[in-house]
Write a structure and sequence with these properties.
Layout (H helix, E strand, L loop, with lengths): L8 E7 L7 E11 L9 E5 L2 E2 L5 E3 L6 E7 L11 E10 L6 H4 L12
Antiparallel strand pairs: 1-6, 2-3, 2-7, 3-4, 5-6
């Protein structure tokens, strides 16, 4: 566990352990939730590659297999003093511009209501 105070920055780094130098990481979703096994009802920091938290900052990494970011810890929306950070990363081939990693933020379109 990492202990941070309210409004203190939490720095996160993800590292892909692979001998293939042509792989890269993409942060698809990152959710803070009161339990370690359930992300529904959690607070989305990043969702579908779209930043949802105004304190989120991505950091440059000289290597595509290392992903770095920070966000500010917030007062829990739940009565539990512990918050779990659960992130979903996507691994892609570097320079494959058709991959999910290069699509960036994907907003889902709303369905049209039938008459």
């Amino acid at each position: 566990p990492y202990y941070v105070n309210i409004n203190q920055s939490l720095f996160v780094q993800a590292y892909l352990h692979s001998s293939d130098p042509n792989l890269m990481l993409f942060l698809h979703t990152c959710v803070a939730s009161p339990t370690s096994h359930n992300t529904t009802g959690g607070y989305a920091i990043v969702k579908n590659g779209c930043v949802r938290d105004p304190t989120y900052v991505a950091y440059y990494s000289p290597h595509s297999h290392i992903l770095r970011f920070k966000y500010s810890a917030f007062r829990s929306l739940w009565s539990n003093p512990v918050v779990y950070l659960q992130c979903e990363l996507v691994v892609c081939r570097a320079y494959d511009y058709s991959s999910r990693c290069y699509q960036g933020c994907v907003r889902r379109s709303k369905r049209e209501a039938n008459s």
